[in-house]
């Protein structure tokens, strides 16, 4: 695909099983309509790689010839000329990248640049002319909705395209396709997991799997690292009424996953019992969600399971007073059942809204949440996974606006980005 081009990947909501997913228990998640977008344009100087990640106030550039290619490439494991992923980030490569990351003095910027360069050095090569990469997200960042995974999927897919590791996406939204095996999507999924490993040490892979493949899944990481994770698509995912509340309390997935790890070491039997309870819970929820008939009784059971899941996450120490406040408000106004979603510690909660609650009562509940300074989202679940938008697929009269890095970086908010770029605004988005 010729530059410029866009790629985009969705965020996700974990409905059941965050944290236990890291320990090989099944979890259920669905793609969100909120997405990250990455614009790739040729750099003015063909030796320069430019990053512009305005959501995290990062602009950075490298001369591509300053990357220690020879010392890195010798540690890349190639099979049939294809780079292979590994269980852990290759320490020698991380060490070599240290020389070009040394001038980054914030850990936030360091991890984002490490993720970029780790994928760049594996998927592209020194001959590739310098490009500019600008990422904007309509997701809240660091809030439990998979912003890191959608970023990693955007980077992995764009770099795989530039490095000729995948064929271009071909299917339009309107095409009826029966997905079976798809090596390109599996390639992007596995490399975005390496990107997630740069953001936090021990990702289960559920967030990047949903951001890559879209839809709704039951996901299970295998305890034996040699075995691939199991991803079961949930095609009949029931239409559930969901309210998303962002407490805006910042937190880091890496810290929260680390905290559960410590609990596991200190109280292994207790924490294993909690993780096992979560396993039963996800399995029970799955059986309910795939029933051909999904009525009032099933909705009630799911709400009960949401309450139990939240309680178990509290026991793992990953809630936060702000999340408990969301729970108190939604419980008191009898909106439905609430649990934290994603890593917790702040960030977002989901409420499975009781179907009997009137629109007026929902509006009243939302007003109370907003009074606390929280932001409520209405979003749809189960959307498309990673997609790309080529210059040629955009009407000629729109191209200079859509592919302008200056304009893209300057959009003030989610609404503006979606107005220009969303799949509703442009029909040319293609999927693998
Ligand atoms: N638009 C973006 N531009 C650049 N970096 C981003 C962007 N979105 C996310 N990131 C990276 O991801 C990090 C946040 O990831 P983190 O895993 O802590 O939260 P999350 O993915 O939003 O939530 P969860 O993992 O619980 O679903 C940010 O600190 C940043 O490094
Ligand atoms: C907390 C966690 O379970 C979900 C984060 O969205 C971590 C992971 O599965 O990688
Ligand atoms: Mg994350």
Features:
single chain, 432 residues, alpha+beta, Ribosomal Protein S5, domain 2, Alpha-Beta Plaits, 2 domains, ten-stranded mixed beta sheet, 16 strands, binds adenosine-5'-triphosphate, binds (R)-mevalonate, binds magnesium ion
Describe the structure.
It is an enzyme of class 2 (transferase). Keywords: ATP-binding, Cytoplasm, Kinase, Lipid biosynthesis, Lipid metabolism, Magnesium, Metal-binding, Nucleotide-binding, Steroid biosynthesis, Steroid metabolism, Sterol biosynthesis, Sterol metabolism, Transferase. It comes from Scheffersomyces stipitis (strain ATCC 58785 / CBS 6054 / NBRC 10063 / NRRL Y-11545) (Yeast). Its EC number is 2.7.1.36. The radius of gyration is 21 Å and the shape is globular. The protein folds into two domains: 5-233 and 382-431, Ribosomal Protein S5, domain 2, CATH 3.30.230.10; 242-377, Alpha-Beta Plaits (2-Layer Sandwich). Helix 2 crosses helix 3 (107-123) and helix 7 packs across helix 8. The longest helix has 22 residues, at 268-289. The protein is of the alpha+beta class. The strands form three sheets. Strands 1, 2, 3, 4, 7, 8, 9, 10, 15 and 16 form a ten-stranded mixed sheet that branches. It is built from 14 helices and 16 strands. It has helices spanning 69-73, 91-101, 107-123, 147-162, 183-199, 206-213, 253-266, 268-289, 296-315, 321-332, 359-371, 396-402, 405-410, 414-421, and strands at residues 5-16, 27-42, 48-53, 58-63, 78-79, 82-83, 131-137, 171-172, 216-220, 230-233, 242-246, 336-340, 348-353, 375-377, 387-390, 430-431. The model has no long low-confidence stretch (mean pLDDT 95). Bound molecules: adenosine-5'-triphosphate (ATP), (R)-mevalonate (MEV) and magnesium ion (MG).
């Amino acid at each position: 695909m010729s530059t410029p081009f866009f790629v985009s990947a969705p965020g996700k909501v974990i409905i059941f099983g965050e944290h236990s997913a890291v320990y090989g228990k099944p979890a259920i998640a669905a793609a969100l309509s909120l997405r990250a977008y990455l614009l790739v344009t040729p750099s003015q100087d063909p030796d320069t790689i430019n990053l512009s990640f305005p959501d995290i106030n990062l602009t950075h550039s490298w001369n591509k010839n300053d990357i220690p290619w020879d010392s890195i490439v010798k540690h890349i494991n190639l099979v049939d000329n294809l780079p292979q992923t590994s269980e852990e980030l290759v320490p020698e490569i991380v060490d070599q990248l240290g020389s070009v990351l040394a001038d980054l003095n914030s850990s936030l910027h360091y991890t984002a640049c490490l993720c970029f360069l780790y994928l760049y050095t594996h998927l592209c090569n020194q001959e590739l002319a310098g490009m500019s990469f600008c990422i904007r997200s309509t997701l809240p960042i660091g809030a439990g909705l998979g912003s890191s995974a959608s970023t990693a999927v955007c980077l992995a897919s764009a770099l795989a395209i530039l490095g000729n590791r995948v064929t271009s996406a071909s299917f339009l939204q309107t095409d009826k396709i029966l997905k079976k095996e798809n090596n390109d999507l599996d390639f992007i999924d596995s490399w975005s997991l390496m990107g997630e490993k740069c953001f936090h040490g021990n990702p289960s892979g559920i967030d990047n799997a949903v951001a890559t493949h879209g839809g709704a899944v039951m996901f299970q990481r295998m305890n034996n690292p040699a075995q691939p994770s199991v991803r079961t698509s949930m095609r009949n995912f029931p239409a559930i009424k969901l309210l998303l509340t962002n407490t805006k309390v910042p937190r880091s997935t890496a810290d929260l996953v680390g905290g559960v790890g410590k609990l596991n070491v200190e109280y292994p039997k207790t924490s294993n019992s909690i993780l096992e309870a979560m396993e039963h819970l996800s399995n029970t929820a799955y059986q309910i969600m795939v029933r051909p008939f999904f009525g009032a009784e099933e909705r009630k059971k799911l709400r009960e399971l949401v309450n139990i899941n939240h309680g178990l996450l509290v026991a793992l120490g990953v809630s936060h007073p702000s999340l408990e406040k969301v729970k108190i408000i939604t419980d008191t106004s009898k909106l439905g059942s609430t649990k934290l979603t994603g890593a917790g510690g702040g960030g977002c909660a989901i409420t499975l809204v009781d179907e009997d609650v009137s629109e007026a009562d929902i509006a009243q509940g939302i007003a109370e949440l907003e009074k606390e300074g929280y932001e409520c989202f209405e979003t749809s679940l189960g959307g498309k996974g990673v997609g790309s938008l080529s210059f040629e697929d955009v009407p000629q009269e729109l191209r200079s606006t859509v592919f302008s890095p200056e304009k893209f970086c300057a959009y003030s908010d989610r609404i503006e980005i979606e107005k220009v770029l969303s799949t509703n605004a442009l029909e040319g988005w293609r999927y693998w």
